[in-house]
Structures are given as C-alpha cells and as structure tokens.
Amino acid sequence: YIMISRRANLEIEGINLPGHFIARHEDVYFDPFHKGRILTQGDCREILSKQNLPFDSKHLMLATPRQIFVRVLANLLYVYDLEEDAESHAKVESWIKALTAHSLIK
C-alpha cells in the first residue's frame, strides 16, 4: 500500500500498532492484512484490548521505515522459530539486533 500510494501521489503511512500493523491515509485507518478494512479508533482499541493493552495515543503514531523493516524481520523470526530453522532464525535475529542497537527503535 505504501509503495503503490507513492507512485499514485497519495500519502499512506504505516502505523506501528502493537500486535497488528495498520495503515493510515489522512484521518482514515485501515487494515492492509484484512482486505483494507476501514478501522475506527474503537477498532484499534479492541485490537489492543485483545492483548490486554490499554489504548494510548502513541500507539497510533507513524512507523519509521526502520520500524517497518524490523517488524517484517520479527515476523520472519516467528516463522523460522515455528519451522525450527535455527540457522535462518539466528541470521534474522542478528539483523534485528544490528538495526535496533543503541536504542534506535523505540
């Protein structure tokens, strides 16, 4: 969504909602992993409540490119863990450590 929107001169931004990455265009939040379903702030609260997390406005802050990349790598880490692929897991884990060193990601 983000890359294609740029080619169309639209601004779609990633939102680093804990446990579920979402996107935003202007004041509209949507879920790129569930057919672009439009989300209200209440929907975002519900996503967080399923993880026993209280809603905080910081949860709707824009994700940096580095945060998005680390999030993708974390998903790969999870898959490699399930597949018991220790070599790939170790490689991706080292990349995450390099990208998050010195508190670059909050």
Describe the overall structure.
With 106 residues, this protein is an alpha+beta fold. Helices cover 45% and strands 14% of the residues. The protein has helices at 2-7, 41-49, 65-82, 86-100; strands spanning 12-15, 22-25, 28-31, 37-39. The chain has a 4-stranded antiparallel sheet with strand order 1-2-3-4. Strand 3 (28-31) and strand 4 (37-39) form a beta hairpin. Helix 3 packs antiparallel against helix 4 (86-100). The protein is globular, with a radius of gyration of 15 Å. The two termini are 24 Å apart. The model has no long low-confidence stretch (mean pLDDT 92).
Please give the radius of gyration in angstroms. Answer: 15 Å
Strand order of the largest sheet: 1-2-3-4
Low-pLDDT windows of residues: none
Helical content stands at 40-55%
Distance between the termini: 24 Å
Task: Give the biggest sheet.
Answer: 4 strands, antiparallel
Provide mean pLDDT, rounded. 92
Number of alpha- plus pi-helical segments: 4
Classify the oligomer. Answer: single chain
Q: Report strand %.
A: 5-15%
Helix and strand sequence: HEEEEHHH
Number of strands: 4
- Molecular shape: globular
Strand-pairing-aware structural class = alpha+beta
